[in-house]
TrEMBL record, chains A, B:
The lineage of its organism: Archaea, Methanobacteriati, Methanobacteriota, Stenosarchaea group, Methanomicrobia. Its EC number is 2.6.1.51. This is Serine-pyruvate aminotransferase. GO terms for molecular function: alanine-glyoxylate transaminase activity; L-serine-pyruvate transaminase activity. Coiled coil: none annotated. It comes from Methanolapillus ohkumae.
Length: 387, 387
């Protein structure tokens, strides 16, 4: 089966709608001109409604989500600044590494898949002198949603800056940047926005921008203050040559978001992940995340424990042969879990396809004794989407 | 006139052929799979022939040329390492800033537009202890080609690493990375390769890669050693999510380079810039660069002095109204020069268009007394291209 006939059901990159792909076929324009500026303005305006902040707070970096994370950490912290890095998965670990590179890292590690314990966060903050808190909102490696509003409150209480990675949630889950007290929020183009990879959207509060002026060793290409200053000029631009074609794609992807409506889009994501969970649970497959009062299952990706005696990679491979690309666990979770993304332009039909094929694969692997069970559960979860 | 009807004759971004634009309409693939690896391999293989080095030496970063420059400087130098930064234009100045960020900069500044004085370079090297030399090969801000082979020899003589920016020359001028003793060469996708902006191709010698292991504070997203390690694995990949659509475009752009033939392509660039110079000189417009024995006019962009009493920006604007986008001078050169790019997929017809329109604009501005002079000179310079 050819690659371009495969259904991508990973937590990014996701299937990109033809409208978005074809937007990239537009000719080049000068990125120091009015046309580019107008496009940048539209991108800011729509995406600001997803971040729930002001349009001027949005900057776009030509680079992956990791580039945005580095820009956030490196532009807000001096080497002597203490950064509380909350880790309960692969991306939290990456944030911790970045924190150690630009600041003085104060690690707070939980088992991957476990929930963040707010008591332990407060203990670290009480111990004093934390400049910034770095956390992943939607830890896609384990499919858990971490408690952003609560961490925002703690950040406020202890006078810390709050840097939140919303790479795999913005566009598929509610983000209230201003209300939660997030100082910098970072996302990528290739997840719930359903654009191609290569751009990072970063929301920067005025307070954070002000503080960046005090940071002496900000990165160069990833200097977030430079991006913000260029993005708030009358002729909006980027400090370095932007990936113009990807801006075309992002503009079109955001127009689609606007047409669908943000609430509808988030609800679709919710019901699709619920359909995955309900149908998997119905056939005895357990969810991987360990929730507590303040965490939740991810709205955009689901992580299941591999059944006893079965390697998660086998499930992934068998499904791949049938034309559906899901993903496994990372690092020490490899083989132990398998993950299904429900991001971006994924449809209920894609979910039905994936669940029935997954059920068949589990049947052929001897995990379940018959097929035909998942349809009802998945359909029922998504019934509000059938209009 | 609408933006997408304008002819881009700047030193990047350039007109991108439809074949390349449409390549981006292909669906997403998993960037951790065989299809992506095969595409990356093809990109390495063709571009290595432009760098004149081994395919495995090529890495591709999702970011602009500046990102590639930062990756080069930051991955090869510790803070205490002395970097000789040769500056004779805007991009040399940028290299100097980057050098100061990651190492200890030893500046060597010439007037923008002047040639590099090899004697002064050797003086700095003799003073001792230079770890790396950073130079722009084709300084597009002033349209001069700097003496890369000679600097390579000096680097060898004094045991320094040689970092060469070939952003605006690779694909349009001869680059002999291995023969010249270049340790790291950096280019961008949106210049002579005629792909959209957003990727940086970096050639890294084995010697440089070995030395990078000793660098303690390499950038994170722009860690060149990480890119090289990922690019030389059997399953070729990038350390962070790549801009897959831009890889499609680059692959197609490089296929076009291969079809044209590298020698033919470089010759076309040479004859097109010669046509610009010959026709401008014929009507009394002076070239801006001050050449010496070791420098040359750029093979890919031409910089002209604004005629007495005329602002270079006026020429740019008047031509823009007529549908052709050229560019002016940067920083203190603004208004003093105007520049015409001849990069990538630019055709002799585009050059003829631009020269005759430019002549007309100069006529309307009162610089020349009649029109009709440039055609012969431009045609004659490019006669080998009319086959």
């Amino acid at each position: 089966m050819k690659a371009d006939e495969k259904l991508l059901m990973m937590p990014g990159p996701v299937v990109v709608p033809s409208r978005v792909l074809l937007a990239m076929a537009k000719p080049m324009i000068n990125h120091r001109g009015k046309e580019f500026s107008a496009m940048y303005g539209e991108i800011q305006s729509i995406s600001a409604q997803l971040f729930n902040t002001k349009a001027d707070n949005i900057s776009v970096i030509s680079g992956s989500g990791t580039a945005g994370m580095e820009a956030a950490i490196g532009s807000l912290n001096n080497k002597s600044d203490k950064i509380l890095a909350i880790e309960n998965g692969k991306f939290g670990q990456r944030f911790k590494k970045l924190a150690g590179k630009y600041g003085t890292v104060v690690p707070l590690e939980f088992e991957w898949g476990d929930s963040v314990d707010l008591g332990k966060v407060e203990e670290k903050l009480e111990a004093g002198d934390i400049k910034s808190i770095a956390m992943i909102h939607n830890e896609s490696s384990t499919a858990i949603r971490n408690p952003a509003p609560e961490i925002g409150k703690l950040a406020k209480k202890y006078g810390a800056y709050f840097i939140l990675d919303v790479v795999s949630s913005l566009g598929g889950d509610t983000i209230l940047m201003d209300e939660w007290g997030v100082d910098i929020a970072v996302t990528g183009s290739q997840k719930c926005l359903a654009a191609p990879p290569g751009l990072s959207l970063v929301g920067v509060s005025e307070k954070a921008a002000e503080e960046m002026k005090n940071i002496t060793n900000r990165p160069y290409y990833l200097d977030l203050l430079a991006y913000r200053n260029s993005a708030t000029k009358e002729l909006k631009e980027t400090p370095y040559t932007p990936a113009v074609s990807l801006f075309y794609a992002l503009q079109e992807a955001l127009r689609i978001v606007k047409e669908e409506g943000i609430e509808n889009r988030i609800n679709r994501h919710y019901l699709m992940t619920k359909a995955v969970r309900d149908s998997m649970t119905a056939i005895g497959i357990e969810m991987f995340p360990q929730l507590n009062k303040y965490s939740a299952y991810s709205n955009t990706v689901s992580a299941m424990k591999a059944p006893p005696g079965v390697d998660g990679e086998e499930i992934k491979k068998a499904l791949g042969k049938r034309g559906i690309v899901i993903t496994g666990g990372q690092d020490h979770l490899k083989g132990k879990i398998f993950r299904v993304g429900s991001m971006g332009s994924t449809t209920p039909l894609n979910i039905m396809n994936t669940m029935t094929e997954l059920e068949f694969v589990l049947f052929t692997l001897g995990v379940i004794e018959s097929t035909g069970a998942v349809d009802d559960f998945a359909s029922d979860a998504m019934k509000d989407l059938y209009v």
